[in-house]
Amino acid sequence: MSSTADQDEQQYLLQLLQAHGQIFLGSFDIPVPRPRKRRRTDEADSNVNNASKVEDHTGSEEEWTGFANDPSDSDDDKDFPSFDDGSNDDDFTANATNSHHVPVVVFDNGQKRTNSLPSGSKTGLKAFMSSKVSKLTQDSRGIQRRSVRTLDDEDEERTNVENDAELRRLIHTKLLSGSLNPDLDLKPAQRRKALEGRLLELAGDAKLGKGERSVKFAERNKAAQKVRLGMLAKQKEREEKQLEEAKNMGNYHPAIKKLFEPSEGQQTIRKRQRGLTMGVGKFKGGVLKLTKEEISSVQGSAPPRRVLQRGNGRPGGRRK
Amino acid sequence: MALSGTALHFSTHQYLRHRLVLSVLSGKPVKIDKIRPEDKNPGLRDYEVSLLRLLEKVTNGTVIEISYTGTAVLLKPGVISGGSVIHECPPSRSIGYFLEAVIMLAPFAKSPFQLTLRGITTDDRDLSVDLIRTVTLPHLQLFGVSDGLELRIKKRGSPPGGGGEIQFLCPIVKQVKTLNFVDQGKIKRIRGIAHAVRVSPQFSNRMIEASRSVLNRYIPDIYLYSDVYKGQESGKSPGYALSLLAESTTGALHCSEAVSQPGVAPEDIALIATRSLLSEIQKGGCVDGKHQSLVLLMMVLGSEDVGRCRMGEPTPRTIQFLRDVKEFFGTSFKIVPANPSEPTSGGLLFSCYGTGYMNINRSIA
């Protein structure tokens, strides 16, 4: 008696295992080998009686849901069959059982596991549990579309940014300051200037691509006044000509005005504020004038960006 | 009384809420009598009185007269003022009872609502705050009430002790949009919230497991969240509940919930909720039974255009609501089977001509 029960159970388990294995194989798009399938159906044939007893859907369901371990005591399973009957033949059952004797029902609980701990569950949870109703519905409409879009867009965005950075680096290290290249046959003085400029760039004293220029500028300052003025005049003339040419060629646009503006030197001159200062604002005509930013900066939460700007913008104030 | 001649007249305590709401919205006085005259304890219940008090708080100039025995009420509505209001709900009814009424009024207030309600957040008679947040308020979005619509569940409170607290924020609108919602779509996702307060937190996981055992075979996109409230936030009494909602491809929402009962396992509670969700879905339509009257009211108040919505069978409450709407606004609905080929299934198509209700209370900023 007990031995037959053992056999039943063993066979039942074996069937489950095989059905599960087929589902697993099915997920790889490999055609299921014939003999195996036949053997399985043979087995199903051989013990139709046993199997039909064991393969009650309720039983197999318990196997997988796991909250009603003891079939005898819980009354939940009484309710299951009503739902089972309708859904036996849908996708959730093992479709490999085309033998019309004993359907082996295997719930693919592997999928269930991944569902309960999905990768995007955190955002989903946040959106769903948010008190804001707009977020709640945004989740229902947006998230999937957004996730698809972000995959593409983010990739493109990132490669674009990377390419930009790469191009900029190339231009400034290879093309312009490529004056270090031995093939160019530079004179030693020129090479020295290029190298110094490059060093300044690397040290962060000069902006990328402006190193050599700043070296030349410093050197120029040593010249006599008359010469210096001449050089400045010439440079100005050259810049104007360049701008004119760019305009004629159609390369100019107000958006890139900065590129054609006279480079360093002139811009750094700042109008010094005369008279009394109160630390913040402008004192003019007996009135202390405060900008909105200045007011917000003393009212608690000032954005950090603002602080940085002040540090850079008003060195005089800081010195006091 | 000069006004009582023009006041609309109703009887019995049934449908008190939506009659009061319709009165406030339409500005027509309403007289309700024969409130439980044969009862051992005649007259208004404490929660009904509390609702009247809440209406008085959120409006300005409302006159409420309750007869000596409490079996008759006269309401002369004022303007809906909104603003920040705090209200204690009695433990005999959950917050949902009060909130449902307020949600109908809130978009038409003078200033945006900031309502704080304290009491029971989930019980078996009214919508729980979870469903109001996840289902009722999204329905308002169909009508263009969306920015700043918010429901914060600060504390949960189970019956009988209560001790929950919610905050409801609602923007104001000039006019609600006309609804045209006839495609019910197919269910694409199921969401749910299981919560358990002052009992083992494992209960919510057990409910989720049990509910999944039924739902998993229909669609794969099921997330059931377990919402944890601890300590002070968990109210005064123990309890747990599962609320479920199913959303279709077109955004139609169906919901159900089940609340803990003494001596019943959490799995059974979850199964009750799950079954009722399935039967709710079976009824079809773009709006589920509990939200029919809200959607129909908003359709009536919509701009002067034909609004259409597909729904399942109207509930008795909805039927009475439609009758009352006809009295207050003079609007009647055209109800036809959605697909004439098979009139018994496929739901009904409700269509009406909006009254073009403008929010006259709105402060011009």
UniProtKB/TrEMBL annotation, chain A:
Q: Which spans does this entry mark as compositional bias, Polar residues?
A: 112-122
Q: Which InterPro entries match?
A: Ribosomal_biogenesis_FAF1-like
Region Disordered: start-end pairs: 28-96, 104-123, 294-320
Picking any one GO biological process from the record gives: maturation of SSU-rRNA from tricistronic rRNA transcript (SSU-rRNA, 5.8S rRNA, LSU-rRNA)
Q: Name one GO cellular component term.
A: nucleolus
Looking up PANTHER family in the UniProt record yields:
PROTEIN FAF1
Q: What is this protein called?
A: Uncharacterized protein
Q: Native species of this protein?
A: Neolentinus lepideus HHB14362 ss-1
UniProtKB/TrEMBL annotation, chain B:
* GO cellular component terms, semicolon-separated: nucleolus
**Keyword set for this entry?**
Nucleus, Ribosome biogenesis
Write down a Pfam family by its short name: RTC_insert
- Care to name a GO molecular-function term for this sequence? RNA endonuclease activity
Ranges where the RNA 3'-terminal phosphate cyclase domain occurs: 10-335
The RNA 3'-terminal phosphate cyclase insert domain extends over 182-282
| Gene Ontology terms describing biological process | endonucleolytic cleavage of tricistronic rRNA transcript (SSU-rRNA, 5.8S rRNA, LSU-rRNA)
State the compartments where it is located: Nucleus, Nucleolus
Q: Which InterPro entries match?
A: RNA3'-term_phos_cycl_insert, RNA3'_phos_cyclase_dom, RNA3'_phos_cyclase_dom_sf, RNA3'_term_phos_cyc, RNA3'_term_phos_cyc_type_2, RNA3'_term_phos_cycl-like_CS, RNA3'P_cycl/enolpyr_Trfase_a/b, RPTC_insert
Classification via PANTHER family: RNA 3' TERMINAL PHOSPHATE CYCLASE (PTHR11096), RNA 3'-TERMINAL PHOSPHATE CYCLASE-LIKE PROTEIN (PTHR11096:SF1)
What is the similarity comment for this entry? Belongs to the RNA 3'-terminal cyclase family. Type 2 subfamily.
Name of the featured protein: 18S rRNA biogenesis protein
